[in-house]
Amino acid sequence: MMNESVVVSRKGEEGATAAVSGTVSIGESIADSVRVTSPSSTDIDGHQGQAGQRRLGSGVRKRSIGLRLLPWLAGALFLTLWQLRLFHQLFSLESYQLPVPSAIAASIRENAEMLFRYAMYSGTEMLGGFLLGSLLGALAAAGASFFPTSGRAAVAVMSALNAVPIVALAPIMNNWFGDGIWSRIAVVAVITMAAMAVSLFKGLTSIQPQYSDLMGGLAASRLQVFVKLRWPHAMPSLFAGLKINMSTSIIGAIVGEFFIASQGLGYLLSDQIRLANMPLAWSCIVIAAVLGIVLYEAVVLAEKRLIPWNHARTDP
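Above: the chain's sequence. Below: its structure in token form.
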């Protein structure tokens, strides 16, 4: 009897143990299911991080759009105030002295064919002088970079050409090259050559010593150093010079046409000022400004295409 009771009690204990273990396993499965279905803290942090990045990206895009629109809004505000004659009141000007934008636009519309023809003529002078002057300046800087000491002195002498006033240079070029288009191209070439030489020479010679030492250790020739090291390093300086020259070339072409010319925006501007036809005179100024902006942006676009790393480094 004693043995049977012991057996019965052991069976009861085993049953209780099995029940308890079954209860524990069910609880563990429920906990596992809860752990699977509920998001972990890492997932929550990840979602919050992605949301923060989306908000940050949206804010950056809005700021970029705002920065792009800001110049256009400022220009529209300026033209609106000009049209409302605010500047006439501020500076005590009459309409014949400062035509409003609507009068200038009407003059451009009425003389569109003549303005287009003269703009092409002045644009040819600008581009011709710009390319010739930039090429001569680049060749001078490249040659001077092979002999840095004497080359620096030569570039300094060449930079003195920038000190010559255009109004003094234009009659001289007219005397040398006649009253044709080549005299204005020569004026633009002279005033752009020095800027390119100074800018590019600085880029070609501003090499960090360790790079020069490395090329020297590899027994590179002067030509190899120029092609492999100096020229790629000077590309930003080259485009800096091109942008300066593009802005300067429009001044040289317009001022050169003031003296001896039979066509061009500068000739028409000077002629219409004498006739007191200010809307057409201001039309020439507007067309010349638009021409200069378009050509300048063409240089900027070429810079972005050819040396994108420099644009990414200098972009805010």
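The CA atoms of residues 53 and 187 lie 54 Å apart.
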